[in-house]
């Protein structure tokens, strides 16, 4: 490992993020990508690699409007390495594989991106779950035919088990959701910017899948995020301090399942987080900011525990006591998270953590933020990344 | 009609056992490990010989949720989902609906019996609270 080139994030970009924008996803991708390239002080011709999640596939429901091959054509790139893939350590695998490509000399500057138009796809008539007469196979076939049709159902059962075993409360989850909404008021890209939320709003919201209510669920959006992953040894003369990819966690050790893991209060995050800390001398106490996957609020305490910010079972009390807020142990999801900034599928946290480590998170900046961690994914899907400002 | 599973040689016994009122679980012939979801080799000992046998048909709720979101006309709301550990098969959980009861009455620790809903060539396991 010591001989490898290190990889660093040198540029970041984000498109407009909104609901039902009906904007071209190609255009939104280009907005984010060109912003990231310019932010890195590079030009299009410097980009020799592409990495994205989930890659080129049927754009069902606005999940995958721009693949790696699309990106190459849209920007007229000539690349030495490219990848677009869905299976791996969560959506953030696109960043992890980009770092691997740079570290092994396959590319010098990789454009990493995620593009979605899920909100507009809902307007134009998404095929509903359970419609049609196609059959289902694979791991979903052990959930969907039984009526467990949505990830909110699977996540809600984690929450119910944690309420039973650990005394988790709705007020604890609500404390995190309300804090993140407050953060979103300082983030002009957040889909809930200008829409504050109180604890009363949270507690009176309609239930989706008990104990999870509307505000425990992230918000589908249209938008795109891009970052540039470069060789650290070529990043010294660029406009912003490089953000080193210090370590990544990609392990999966208890099967790809939402219901068969021995302990239903854990998920794939545990293996990914353990793997992350094995690869660095840094410790959880070195971290100031975190982007923790909140496709559903319940994942936040689960990631906090997995990453070692608190003991197993104490994640609920941790967020309830505001230890996940600015002024607490670690500031989590300062952009609003996916609950309030929108479901950029892990890439919103990536953009925000880079802003924090550059001290550019206006109105929500964490003091002396130098180390940030990303814990991305829910259920068996998990990947972790540790970022360090050079 | 709910979304139905694709029937394969690996999962046929599970999805059709309900015809005879049986919840069929695959086990390894070598080490007797329960293998769920079913597959034709044992992920523990890599034994290539497996066979299905009927589980007890009862179990206990480990986790549950009342679903309020209307996903499909086939699934009138509210309905209750649970993860159930099967009696005699501590390594196997089944996720499905708890039917025939007041959704608000369902709790972790409740004991349930298996039942089946028949759709075409598939018998979907569901749970009933054991009185």
Describe the structure.
The complex is a heterodimer of chains A (390) and B (131). Chain A is of the alpha/beta class and 390 residues long. Chain A has a domain at 7-123 and 221-234: Thiolase/Chalcone synthase (Peroxisomal Thiolase, Chain A, domain 1, 3-Layer(aba) Sandwich), CATH 3.40.47.10. Chain A is built from twelve helices and twelve strands. Chain A is globular and about 55 Å long. Chain B has one domain (12-129). The model of chain B has no long low-confidence stretch (mean pLDDT 96). In chain B, the strands form two sheets. In chain B, strands 4-5-6-8-7 form a five-stranded mixed barrel.
Question: Any descriptors?
Answer:
heterodimer; A: 390 residues; alpha/beta; Peroxisomal Thiolase, Chain A, domain 1; ten-stranded mixed β-sheet; 12 helices; 12 strands; globular; B: 131 residues; mainly beta; 8 strands; 4% helix
Would you kindly provide a brief summary of this structure?
In chain A, the strands form two sheets. In chain A, strands 3-2-4-7-1-8-12-11-9-10 form a ten-stranded mixed beta sheet, with helices on both faces. Chain A has a two-stranded antiparallel ribbon with strand order 5-6. Chain A is an alpha/beta fold.
Q: Largest inter-chain interface? A: A-B, 41 and 39 residues
Overall mean confidence score, pLDDT of chain B: 96
Distance between the termini of chain B: 29 Å
- Taken as a percent bin, the fraction of beta residues of chain B is 35-45%
Question: Regions of chain A with pLDDT < 50 over 5+ consecutive residues?
Answer: none
How many runs of DSSP E, i.e. beta strands of chain B? 8
- Give the number of domains of chain B: 1
Structural class by secondary-structure content of chain A: alpha/beta
Number of helices of chain B: 1
Q: Topology of this structure?
A:
The complex is a heterodimer of chains A (390) and B (131).
Chain A: E1 7-14, H1 25-39, E2 49-52, H2 68-75, E3 81-84, H3 93-103, E4 109-117, H4 118-123, H5 151-166, H6 170-184, H7 199-204, E5 207-209, E6 212-213, E7 222-231, E8 243-249, H8 269-278, E9 289-292, H9 299-306, H10 315-320, E10 331-332, H11 337-340, H12 347-357, E11 371-376, E12 383-389
Parallel strand pairs in A: 2-3, 2-4, 9-10, 9-11
Antiparallel strand pairs in A: 1-7, 1-8, 4-7, 5-6, 8-12, 11-12
Helix pairs in contact in A: 8-9
Chain B: H1 12-16, E1 24-28, E2 34-35, E3 50-54, E4 58-67, E5 79-86, E6 89-99, E7 111-119, E8 122-129
Parallel strand pairs in B: 6-8
Antiparallel strand pairs in B: 1-2, 1-3, 4-5, 4-7, 5-6, 7-8
């Amino acid at each position: 490992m010591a001989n490898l080139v290190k990889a660093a994030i040198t540029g970041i970009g984000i498109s407009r993020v909104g609901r039902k924008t009906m904007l071209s996803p190609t255009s939104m991708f280009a907005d984010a990508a060109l912003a990231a390239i310019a932010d890195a002080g590079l030009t299009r011709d410097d980009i020799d690699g592409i990495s994205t999640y989930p890659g080129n596939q049927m754009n069902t429901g606005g999940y995958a409007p721009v693949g790696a091959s699309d990106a190459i054509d849209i920007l007229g790139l000539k690349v030495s390495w490219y990848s677009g893939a869905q299976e791996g350590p969560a959506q953030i695998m696109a960043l992890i594989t980009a770092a691997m490509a740079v570290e092994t000399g396959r590319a010098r500057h990789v454009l990493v991106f995620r593009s979605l138009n899920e909100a507009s796809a809902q307007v134009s008539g998404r095929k509903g779950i359970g419609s049609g007469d196609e059959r289902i196979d694979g791991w979903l076939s052990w959930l969907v035919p039984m009526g467990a049709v949505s990830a909110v159902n699977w996540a809600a059962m984690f929450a119910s088990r944690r309420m039973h075993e650990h005394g988790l409360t709705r007020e604890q989850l609500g404390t995190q959701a309300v804090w993140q909404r407050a953060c979103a008021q300082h983030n002009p890209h957040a889909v809930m910017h200008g829409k504050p939320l109180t604890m009363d709003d949270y507690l009176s919201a309609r239930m989706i899948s008990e104990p999870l209510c509307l505000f425990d669920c992230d918000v589908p959006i249209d938008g795109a995020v891009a970052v540039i992953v470069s060789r650290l040894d070529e990043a010294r003369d660029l406009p912003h301090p490089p953000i080193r990819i210090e370590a990544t966690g990609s392990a999966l050790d208890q099967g790809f399942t939402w219901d068969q893991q021995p302990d239903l209060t854990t998920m794939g995050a545990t293996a990914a987080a353990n793997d992350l800390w094995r690869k660095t001398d840094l410790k959880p106490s070195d971290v100031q900011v975190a982007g923790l996957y909140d496709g559903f609020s319940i994942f936040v305490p689960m990631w906090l525990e997995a990453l070692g910010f608190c003991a197993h079972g104490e994640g609920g009390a941790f967020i309830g006591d505001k230890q996940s807020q600015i002024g607490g142990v670690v500031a989590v999801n300062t952009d609003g998270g996916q609950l309030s900034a929108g479901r950029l599928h892990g890439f919103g946290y990536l953009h925000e953590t880079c802003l924090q480590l550059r001290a550019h998170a206006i109105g929500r900046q964490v003091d002396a933020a130098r180390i940030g961690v990303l814990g991305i994914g829910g259920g068996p899907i998990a990947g972790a990344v540790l970022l360090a400002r050079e | 009609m709910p979304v139905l599973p694709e029937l394969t040689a690996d999962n046929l016994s599970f999805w059709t056992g309900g015809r005879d009122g049986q919840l069929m679980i695959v086990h390894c012939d070598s080490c007797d490990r329960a293998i769920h979801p079913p597959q034709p080799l044992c992920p523990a000992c890599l034994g290539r010989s497996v066979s299905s046998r009927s589980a007890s048909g009862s179990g206990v709720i480990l986790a549950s949720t009342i679903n309020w979101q209307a996903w499909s006309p086939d699934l009138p709301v509210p309905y209750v989902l649970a993860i159930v550990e099967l009696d005699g098969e501590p390594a196997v959980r089944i996720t499905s609906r708890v039917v025939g009861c007041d959704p608000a009455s369902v709790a972790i620790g409740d004991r349930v019996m298996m039942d089946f809903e028949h759709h075409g060539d598939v018998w979907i396991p569901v749970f009933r609270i054991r009185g």
